[in-house]
Automatic annotation (TrEMBL), chain B:
Protein name: ER lumen protein-retaining receptor
GO biological process: protein retention in ER lumen; protein transport; vesicle-mediated transport
Keyword terms, alphabetized: Endoplasmic reticulum, ER-Golgi transport, Membrane, Protein transport, Receptor, Transmembrane, Transmembrane helix, Transport
InterPro entries: ER_ret_rcpt (IPR000133)
One Gene Ontology CC term in the entry: endoplasmic reticulum membrane
Domain of life: Eukaryota
MF terms in GO: ER retention sequence binding
Primary location group: endoplasmic reticulum
Length: 10, 212
């Protein structure tokens, strides 16, 4: 799911 | 934020500054692949669309703007200002072979089938192979200016630092992002040959030359 991905990484 | 990611990001920042410095001081984009730089623009724009609807942190915001801005500036310098120094006849990698498969992979592997998430996945896959036209060009010419190799090394080191970052995050936060990790490891792998020559030759003060 979208929650798995690391949204704070560049 | 952790130590590895910070070092990775700083290395990424350094690579761009080295690249711009090379173009400015030599007043030339000789040895650089326009195609690779164009792919990076596509990578940053498709990945950082979330700038418009998600606030992460000031650090994140500033870095994203910098990466979009500097990659567009590089493209502008190569396309217009120092255009005559760019030789398209050696920058011949077919980027269709990269963009097409990445688009298909993004449609299959994503965390949500939405425009923004598919584009995010696409940017991750595309970034992992965006350096290929540049490495292909290096292979063709068999040598490179030292400053260009510093640029490539900084770019490769940036990716390499992201790997311990993910390991660290797994143990401290329980976070696992399989798309980013698989693509990131593949991307770092592409640099291994280059790293070998860089650390055994350029770091010893020799010119970057591939064996005939």
């Amino acid at each position: 799911t979208v929650d798995d991905r690391v949204k704070d990484e560049l | 934020m952790n130590f590895f990611r910070l070092l990775g990001d700083l290395s990424h920042l350094a690579s761009i500054l080295i690249l711009l410095h090379k173009i400015k001081t030599t007043r030339s984009c000789r040895g650089l692949s326009f195609k690779t730089q164009a792919l990076y623009v596509a990578v940053f724009i498709t990945r950082y669309l979330d700038l418009t609807y998600r606030w992460v942190s000031l650090y994140n915001f500033v870095m994203k703007l910098f990466f979009i801005g500097s990659s567009c500036a590089t493209l502008y310098l190569m396309r217009y200002k120092y255009c005559p120094t760019h030789d398209p006849s050696i920058d011949t990698f077919k980027i269709e072979y990269l963009v097409g498969p990445c688009a298909i992979l993004a449609l299959i592997f994503n965390y949500k089938f939405s425009v923004s998430e598919v584009l995010w996945s696409f940017s991750i896959f595309l970034e992992s192979v965006a350096i290929l036209p540049q490495l292909f060009m290096l292979q063709r010419t068999g040598e490179a200016e030292t400053i260009t190799t510093h640029y490539l090394a900084a770019l490769g080191i940036y990716r390499a630092f992201y790997i311990p970052n993910w390991i660290y995050r797994y143990f401290t936060e329980g976070v696992v992002d399989p798309i980013a990790i698989v693509a990131g490891i593949a991307q770092t792998g592409l640099y291994l040959d280059f790293f070998y020559v860089y650390f055994t030759k350029v770091m010893q003060g020799e010119k970057f030359e591939l064996p005939a």
